[in-house]
Amino acid sequence: MTVTIKDVAKVAKVAPSTVSRVISNSPRISERTKEKVREAMKELGYHPNFNARSLANQSTKTIGIIMPNSANKTFQNPFFPEVIRGISTKAHQLEYGLYLSTGQSDEEIIEEVQHMVQGKRVDGIILLYSKVNDKVLKYLHEQDFPFTLIGRPYDESLFNITYVNNDNFKAAKTVTEYLLLLGHKQIAFVGGNLDNVVTIDHMQGYNQALRNAGIEPRDEYIVFHEELQEGGQEAVIDLMSLTERPTALIVADDIMTFGVMRMLSEMEVRVPEDISIISFNNVMISELSAPPMTTVDINIYSLGYEAANLLIDKILHPSVEPKKMIVPHKMIKRETCRRLVEKGGAKRESM
Amino acid sequence: MTVTIKDVAKVAKVAPSTVSRVISNSPRISERTKEKVREAMKELGYHPNFNARSLANQSTKTIGIIMPNSANKTFQNPFFPEVIRGISTKAHQLEYGLYLSTGQSDEEIIEEVQHMVQGKRVDGIILLYSKVNDKVLKYLHEQDFPFTLIGRPYDESLFNITYVNNDNFKAAKTVTEYLLLLGHKQIAFVGGNLDNVVTIDHMQGYNQALRNAGIEPRDEYIVFHEELQEGGQEAVIDLMSLTERPTALIVADDIMTFGVMRMLSEMEVRVPEDISIISFNNVMISELSAPPMTTVDINIYSLGYEAANLLIDKILHPSVEPKKMIVPHKMIKRETCRRLVEKGGAKRESM
DNA sequence: GTGAAAGCGCTAACAG
DNA sequence: CTGTTAGCGCTTTCAC
């Protein structure tokens, strides 16, 4: 009942192999028979069977996407739809399909990845997160399976892989310098999970900027929290309980910033009058906070798009050297940062 | 170089078919040979080839997920990661994989769906959106291909399909009644795209509640906007330009509400003092608005989970009748609604 | 330019 | 309980 290549062959009065050649548009087939075959295909409503092709070809034309484990709240970050949109665009252009991981825990995920690669379910993999000592990364590298990482490898032994990242160190440094320029000296850093490489890079950029300005980073001003919203709220409590409250905050993620701002407003600390905030990512909703947040646009869409691009390249040319790519970031000034008002409180200049 | 069933067979000194039986854990194989075979598999590092299985089985153990076209901003709604998390959980339990659509336009999507089903790339499909006159829906139904819809069919001829939905009519009605109870009479409705069935249901619930209260719905109080954030903002401008401004707003979607609140605060209209707002979905961030929004929790995760559940059921038992399922919703009262203050402005009671 | 036939890796019907 | 064999639907040498 399913119409196969053979049926088409019969109707077109040619051999199955000829039909196959027409499908792949082989130049060694005459236009006349091509026409004949194509007609037969239309007539019968023929569609190539994907699994048969994959089996014969040893290629699936599909990309595996590994998300962080879905139990984690980060999963709901609008970051992901946006990277996927980027990946999706490139994939679609080159007629690749997307296969999604479903694991809820790290063990489930590594297992799944193994199934994907050993079972030849995908031609390559994109890792949507990068954390310290990641088993998945290590496994993929050992297997020499085509993959790209969004983020950067942490382990030295894994430096030589294909990845696309932002210059997160630089971004954090710039952002810190900006706050410094606005007169802030008590700048706190609210990071995400310390296992994420991006958190480490942010922190180092922050530290560097402070040191360059002759300010020694203070431990009490550096806090990390796993969960996005709750984390943001807890961080605020910790920070605002200090005798010397920070006058500015650098927050790891826009969603976390929502939590931070929420908590601050509950405590009746005004943004930016009492405290300045700057964060990272610039997801869709970040312009909708009250007040709209100043943040670093990391070009999420491009991260996805380029990751797909590099991956497909790797799939097609397995032997070429791994490529690294840095997607530019850009600070988006909105309304959560302001020049620090002097003790006396004379001028109030907003930036 | 890839290790196949034959290699295992050789090492274990059995026939390939026996190995196959061990894989599917057939009860007709003695424990002894099972052990022997399993050992050989470990030893060789054997992993079943997915495409070969799919081909022989006529089953892929994967579910296709059709998102709205990714060009659309709704794509970035945190709604999607959350439904997918639900789908993912069920799928993982039953060892199904997830295959994602990548189309950027409606044409691309319908094409993709056809490839998926005709090419036998997936065993079933979940539609993540439901809109009026949807070609995809129609096609799937014509083909009698297993699928479930998240939302409900609009076209009568398609009533008899499997779907999971909320009672959106009821939810909108309740919400309207709630505002009515708070003394509001000038209640506006800010809907999403009128092509979405959910918008229609919301509107009808709203209309019904008003009529029941003896209030004739006014055209000026009903606006629709496609885009989430911008839409929210435009809607506010339209509504606030009326001579008789509404005192309460029912907004289609939490993200849109962020846009609405942003615009309102720019216009220095205070929420909830000057205007009450209630919206739908209760996505993760909705509790982080300032003030935190009152909204209807539609249980997004369950929508996904149940959709996967019904779909897999359908895949396994194709002949059983289509099932419909209504996921309960629940109003989450937070801080954007308040009793209408009488003209004189005596009491101020918050709810 | 086109056909015949082997094979991708696995499953399942039929024997025994 | 286990082996033999014939496919699943397509690609790809190797002939002609």
Automatic annotation (TrEMBL), chains A, B:
GO terms for molecular function: DNA-binding transcription factor activity; transcription cis-regulatory region binding. Residues 3-57 form the HTH lacI-type domain. Pfam families: LacI, Peripla_BP_3. Keywords: DNA-binding, Transcription, Transcription regulation. PROSITE patterns: HTH_LACI_2. This is Transcriptional regulator, LacI family. It comes from Alkalicoccus daliensis.
